[in-house]
Amino acid sequence: MEITGRLVADAAVRAVNADKNVTGFRVAVNRSFKSQGETKQETAFVDCTYWRTDAIAPYLTKGMLVHLHGFMTAEAWVSRDGEAMASLKFRTDEINMLTKSGKPDSDKPTQAGDRNKVMKPSKEFN
Questions:
Q1: Is residue 125 in a domain?
Q2: 99-104: average pLDDT
Q3: How far is residue 48's CA from residue 91's CA, in Å, rounded to a whole number?
Q4: Cα-based angle 106, 95, 41 (whole degrees, multiple of 5)
Q5: What is the value of pTM for the model shown?
Q6: What ranges does the record list as Basic and acidic residues composition bias (predicted)?
């Protein structure tokens, strides 16, 4: 499965156990459609995990456009109030960075016009 979207916040790393970390991030995936002759847009927010390395986390910043390969997983648990809860997550196997960081400080152009150039997809962390 593949999805393309923009990160809504910087990625965060959390420890799963003593020797394993996971990188978590959320992407916004937009979809345009026509309804009664009017073009509308819908946004889905997808929680993602990346288990291969946490070294990628500093590169995954708010506003960045990414193309992800992976699969959906379902999680079920019981809340503190005893309520049954469930969620879907996208378990990412491959991340292609399609744009530079969305942060103004890290996206400074080196020459006129560089700001709008798209980066080539990265395979460094896959």
A1: no
A2: 69
A3: 6
A4: 80
A5: 0.74
A6: 102-126
CB-based contacts of 111: which residues, under 8 Å, 6+ apart? Answer: none
Residue 126 within any structural domain of the chain: no
Instruction: Return the CATH number at 77.
Output: 2.40.50.140
Domain extent for 69: 2-116
Tell me the C-alpha distance between 25 and 74, whole Å: 16
User: How far is 81 from 62, CA to CA, in rounded Å?
Assistant: 33
- Identity of the amino acid at 65: L
Could you tell me if residue 100 is inside a domain? yes
Pairwise pLDDT comparison (98 vs 124), residue with the higher score: 98
Write the pLDDT tens digit of every residue in 37-51: 999 999 999 999 999
The reply to whether 31 falls in a domain is: yes
